Amino acid sequence: MEELIADALVAYENTQGLDPDRLAEFGRAYREQGHLTRDQLYEIAYESSTRSAYHVESNPPERCREVTGNVRLVDGDFSKVQLLTGLSGFKAPTASCVLTALDPERHAVVDTRVWASLARLGYLDGRKESFDAADYVTMIEPIREIAGETGYSVDDVGYALFAYDVEEREGTLH
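RESULT FIELD:
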């Protein structure tokens, strides 16, 4: 598994996946400010899913600060994702970006490709095209397990699983 993760992380640079350095910048701002602004959330959403990012602008700015501030105070992955998905423009994959920015040692960016890789590797069953907070919990548990076994950070395992699907998938994504 270590070799798979190492090779896939190298391959990640050639994907159209989220820029980990850009996400880390948002994470630094999040930790310094104690919250994210609507503009910052829009930028994260745009990086994650350009088509639905415009929905973020319908959130009142104070609600964005309140929700992202509260995420830092709440225990439990399900609760954190559930809070973030209460904002317009945020489903579990985009919420995972916010959580990964905040705490890359505990969280990973997840999507259809990550689910597919986990299924291909025998951690999950079936295909999945949309995700909720419970699905995030389902994915993050094996991602953390792989991180613990390989010594890679949780966020790096997520990026590697994304790239692994890019390399292994035959046909279209959906």
